[in-house]
Design brief:
CATH class: Mainly Alpha
Mean pLDDT: 85
Radius of gyration: 28 Å
Structural class: mainly alpha
CATH architecture: Orthogonal Bundle
Shape: flat
Largest sheet: 2 strands, antiparallel
Order of helices and strands: HHHHHHEEHHHHHHH
Helix content: over 70%
Distance between the termini: 48 Å
Number of strands: 2
């Protein structure tokens, strides 16, 4: 009668994975020590270097001009993201259209705006009055019903909103298009077989699944837009960066004022990142392997979770 060799010779039995200990890795320990030492050295250097002028940084963190610039930065980010998402959704739908001229026009629109740097677009829109001195409404060959000076219409704020919104719409169009295309076509076929209309299929089947793919890059794009608003300082719009530039142009305290802007950017970006992660976790329920495994383990233990 055959005898199991593992039972016959306990010394050769396989180790129990439940009581196994992680193997000691000296390389990882050395890496941790190096990182901690480097972090401590950088913090000590920053804290003891008098040229950072941390006292000035603390005094100017809540300066009225700085807070007004921060408010303008947040306003630009929200408005341009909303307009860019609306235009990007239309451009994404156009790229997925079966009608060739609409699809080609949207592809050219996205390619053109993605290919031109946002700084160039801002300067172009700010100087639009050179190409179009006046904007008129009326029938061709007849006196205009209304007419406005483009130089008065295109203020720094208007140019910033137009330039950043159009630039953002091109990227959002690609994000939304990719999210919609990520939904398997079998989902649409199954919905149609169940009697759903095309409208119901899109909003009840496609959009909920596409949002899981759309939200992460959209959140990153929102954060990138927040930082990209600093470009509007070249057209003299008083955002956060331009506000600190005005102050250090008067006081010559360049480094402390730049640190004020850096700290505020880091605070806002960190808060937005936390919100983005929370939304991602909510939309990823049922798709996260770790969460699914935890739920299955609890169900086997009799915990309803």
């Amino acid at each position: 009668m055959a005898v199991d060799t593992a039972l016959a010779n306990p010394t050769t039995a396989r180790p129990d994975a439940a009581i196994a200990r992680p193997r000691f890795r000296p390389g990882r320990l050395a890496a941790v020590v190096v990182l901690v030492a480097a972090t401590v050295l950088v913090l000590v250097w920053a804290a003891t270097n008098p040229r950072f002028e941390w006292g000035v940084v603390g005094d100017l963190m809540f300066d009225p001009s700085v807070m007004a610039g921060l408010g303008m930065t947040l306003l630009l980010t929200v408005v341009c993201m909303a307009l860019g998402t609306a235009l990007g959704t239309a451009a994404a739908a156009g790229q997925l259209s079966d009608f060739g001229p609409v699809r080609w026009s949207c592809q050219i629109y996205v390619g053109l705006l993605r290919g031109v740097p946002p700084l160039v677009q801002l300067i172009f829109w700010f100087n639009l009055a050179y190409l179009v001195p006046r904007l008129s409404i009326g029938l061709p060959g007849a006196d205009p019903v209304a007419s406005w000076s483009v130089n008065e219409l295109i203020t720094p704020l208007t140019a910033a909103i137009i330039g950043l919104s159009l630039h953002e719409s091109a990227y959002m169009a690609e994000i939304i298009r990719a999210g919609i295309m990520s939904v398997d076509s079998g989902q649409r076929d199954a919905a149609r077989a169940m009697g759903y209309s095309r409208h119901q299929t899109f909003w009840k089947i496609v959009v909920p699944q596409a949002m899981r793919v759309i939200v992460p890059p959209s959140g990153s794009q929102f954060i990138a837009l927040l930082k990209g608003t600093s470009l509007v300082s070249v057209i003299t719009l008083t955002d956060l960066l331009y506000s600190v530039q005005i102050i250090y142009g008067r006081t010559y305290q360049v480094v402390p004022l730049l640190l004020v802007a850096v700290i505020w950017y880091l605070i806002v970006v960190t808060l937005l990142t936390l919100v983005q992660r929370r939304i991602e976790r909510r939309l990823g329920r049922g798709y996260d392997r770790t969460t699914s495994a935890r739920v299955r383990a609890r169900s086997l233990e009799g915990d309803p979770a």
